Structures are given as C-alpha cells and as structure tokens.
Amino acid sequence: MPAEAAQASAPNGPYTIRSYRDIDGPEVGRLIADTYSRFNLQFAAPDELAKLLGPFQHAGSADPAHRAAIAQVLRALMVYVAEEGGEIVGVLRGRRERLASLFVRADHQRRGIGRRLVERFEQESVAEGVGVVRVAATLYAIPFYTAMGYRKTTGIRNGWSFQGRGLQYQPMKKVLAQESAAHDP
Q: Quick check: helix, strand or coil at residue 162?
C-alpha cells in the first residue's frame, strides 16, 4: 500500500485515507467546528463555546486571517484526511506518540472511517519507532478508543481547549509494539 493514499470501502462507497494538503484547510476547519461542537462541546454556553472552538469558531469565514489561524492549528507532524466522493469526511492530527484529534463527519460515523484513520496513524507511528501512543479522549470518544485497544491511564480530567475551560477528557494509551514500549517513560 502506498504511503500517500490508501483505498478502503465504506457502506456507501469507497473512501481514501491520504495526507492532508494545505488546500484542505477550509473544508477540514468546517468539519472540525461542526463535529467538535456537536459531539464534544454540547455542555458549553454560547459564549464559552466560542472560547472552546478557538479559531474554528470562524471556520465558515473567507477572511484570510481566519483561514490562516485555522491553518496554523492544523499544522502537525502527521495529519491525515478521509475523502469520499471528493469531500473530506474525516481528519486525524498527531505527532508520532500522541494522537491529538480525530473528527469524522456526523453522517459518516460508524462506517470504519475513524478506525482507518487511527490505523494509518498507528502504522506510521510504528514505522517511526514508537511503541506507545497516547490520546486525551473526550468523553464521547472513550468507547471508540477502547474498541481500538486503548486503555485508560488515569481518571477523567478537566481540561481546556484554546481559551475555554471545562472540557472533560480521559487520558488513554495503546501499546503498539512490545519491544518499543519498554522505552516508554
């Protein structure tokens, strides 16, 4: 399988997992804003929601400053998107040992897209010599990560997102390769 893109099948058709491109920024920004608000930030009052969304509160804006702020947040060592029918339906950001965020469009959840994005991330992490991946899973995502083999490392924590406070998360980790895990601090 080429490193750039991998084909997979979803119930409504094939999708591709590929590396993020700068041109994807506006579409990925809208996907994150919509999904993050709907599934992870429903507890927030409107004024707090804007703080928790950070630059993604302006995901629908054509203002170059807003787009630049979103592009800056999307920069990570490893960013992959799931594309179906020319539309981006999922995105994962991270760096070798830390899965930073995963979002799958609401109408495409439970089709294996999130699983394939995480598998791609884990494969690349193993190729980089990483034995353990960590994630701060939102409460909504705990069952997904548990099904993917991640285990809770502590209790639920209260954290922040951009300038907002009150986001609860569950620290989790997954051992990818036993021989590399021995070097995990």
A: coil
Give residue 67's domain range. 14-181
User: Can you tell me the distance from the alpha carbon of 126 to that of 154, in angstroms, rounded to the nearest whole number?
Assistant: 24
Contact (CB, 8 A) for 170 and 139? yes
The residues facing 82 across adjacent strands are 17, 90
Return the CATH number at 93: 3.40.630.30
Token digits of residue 152 = 């809770």
For 34-86, the pLDDT digits (tens) are 999 999 898 999 889 999 999 999 999 999 999 999 999 998 889 999 999 99
SS3 129: coil
Has residue 84 been placed in a domain?
A: yes
